[in-house]
Amino acid sequence: MAAFDAPAQLRDLAHRYAWAVDRRAGDDLAALFTPDGAIRGWGENPIDYTGPERLHAMMADLAMFERTMHNVFNQVFEMDADGAVTGLTYCIASHILPGDEPTVVDMAIWYHDRFARHDGAWRFAERRLEMLWIENRPARRFSPEMMSGAVRDLQ
């Protein structure tokens, strides 16, 4: 495998993935994958969402959270001698647990990605989700008072 200068479309896939997941937009999510594309776990992570129906089911599974926000960071890409493209994407995925006193669950993730061309565009063939760690902390929901300019309203 050798590093290569990835086209912008490959980098954009991770951002569009985050946007689709955070909006629970199953059709938009499935459109980022090849027809047999999958999100699977890495190591001990048991998840497996293979194909469009299962990708839509993942959106329903995320209903346990009040809201999510996936933040995409570092990305590296490689191409092997046969032209197969793989990559690694860093992500911090914040999940809000519902309740009167909400909790943020931050998940540090490496996505091990495999890409393929489909209908003339790059798509995910597979995303393997490696969970590195999870951090919980208290959160507050937004209120208009927070925009007052007073520090006390943010504490």
Explained architecture:
This protein has helices spanning 8-23, 26-30, 51-61; strands at 2-3, 33-41, 48-50, 67-79, 85-97, 103-118, 121-138. The chain starts with a strand and ends in a 17-residue tail after the last strand. It has 155 residues and is α+β, with helices and mostly antiparallel strands. It has a seven-stranded mixed beta sheet. Helix content is 21%, strand content 48%.
Structure keywords:
155 residues; alpha+beta; 7-stranded mixed beta sheet; 3 helices; elongated
DSSP strand content: over 45%
Radius of gyration: 18 Å
Instruction: Catalogue the unreliable spans.
Output: none
Overall pLDDT? 94
Cα separation of the termini: 49 Å
Instruction: Tell me roughly what share of residues is in helical segments.
Output: 10-25%
Question: Short description, anyone?
Answer:
This protein is 21% helix and 48% strand. The protein has 155 residues and is of the alpha+beta class. It has a 7-stranded mixed beta sheet.
Q: What is the element layout, followed by pairings?
A:
Elements: E1 2-3, H1 8-23, H2 26-30, E2 33-41, E3 48-50, H3 51-61, E4 67-79, E5 85-97, E6 103-118, E7 121-138
